[in-house]
Each structure stands twice: as C-alpha cells, then as structure tokens.
Amino acid sequence: MVFVTKFQHKVLADRHLTRMEQVMRDVCADFEADLVEFNGENNHVHLLVNHPPKVAVTRLVNSLKGVSSRRLRQEFPDLVRHYYRANKLWSGSYFAGSVGGAPLIIVKQYIEQQNRPV
C-alpha cells in the first residue's frame, strides 16, 4: 500500500514516521493483519501488509489512514498547520496492490530502500 500526504506536501520527518509505524502496526493488529514492512519519505509511506481475506482492503486502509492522521495530529502539534480541509493529513486516494506471485523478499527490499527524510 502507498499513502500520499494531502497535496503531496512534504511534512513527515523521521520522528513522525517512527511513530506512524507503531500506530499502523497497532491498527493492523486490530484487524488480525501483520505489517510486514514500513518505510516512507516526507510526503508518502509504503506498507507491506499481510491481511486475512475476511478483511476488506478499503476498511483496513480507511482505518490506517484515519487513526494515523488523528494520532499524529494529537501527538505532534507542529503538524496541525499541514492538515488541510477537515483536518486531513492524507490524500483521499491510495495505492493497494497484490503481491501474491512476487517473491516477498523483493517487495521487502523495495520498501526498505525508500529514503527517509533527513
């Protein structure tokens, strides 16, 4: 999955990404899913999630984006000025793809190689 910040504004620093990873791991656990890999840059994040087929991708995505946006807004007051229209951190769109046929190690390496902001 890939989530992009609203208007692709470059607002996420390492400390935001570190906290966001933990929040997203907690959300995944609530859905009986496993956040296998997480990484991001200042305007987007990549997630590799193993989730049971009973979980609708849209429900998982909405929860991941909603909870992470809410928690970061509460915990990092400096981010509030970057929230646009209805206090949203994330763009309304997202990318979700299936990697059932691809070797998992390749997907993990791709996500690990994403640059974190300085």
Q: How would you describe what is shown here?
A:
With 118 residues, the chain is an alpha+beta fold. The protein has a single domain (2-112), classed as Transposase IS200-like (Alpha-Beta Plaits, 2-Layer Sandwich), CATH 3.30.70. 38% of the residues lie in helices and 21% in strands. The longest helix is centred in the middle third of the chain and has 19 residues, at 57-75.
Mind sketching the topology for me?
Blueprint: E1 2-5, H1 14-30, E2 34-41, E3 44-50, H2 57-75, E4 90-95, H3 104-112
Antiparallel strand pairs: 1-3, 1-4, 2-3
Relevant terms:
118 residues, alpha+beta, Alpha-Beta Plaits, 3 helices, 38% helix
Task: Give a quick summary of the entry.
The chain is about 40% helix and about 20% strand.
The biggest sheet, with number of strands, parallel, antiparallel or mixed sense and barrel status, is: 4 strands, antiparallel
According to CATH, the homologous superfamily is: Transposase IS200-like
- Spatial extent as radius of gyration: 14 Å
Order of helices and strands: EHEEHEH
**CATH level 3 topology:** Alpha-Beta Plaits
In spatial order, strands of the major sheet run 2-3-1-4
Proportion in helices: 25-40%
Distance between the termini: 23 Å
Tell me the count of domains: 1
The pLDDT mean sits at: 89
CATH class assignment: Alpha Beta
Helix/strand-derived category reads alpha+beta
Q: Outline the low-pLDDT stretches.
A: none
CATH architecture descriptor name: 2-Layer Sandwich
Number of strands: 4
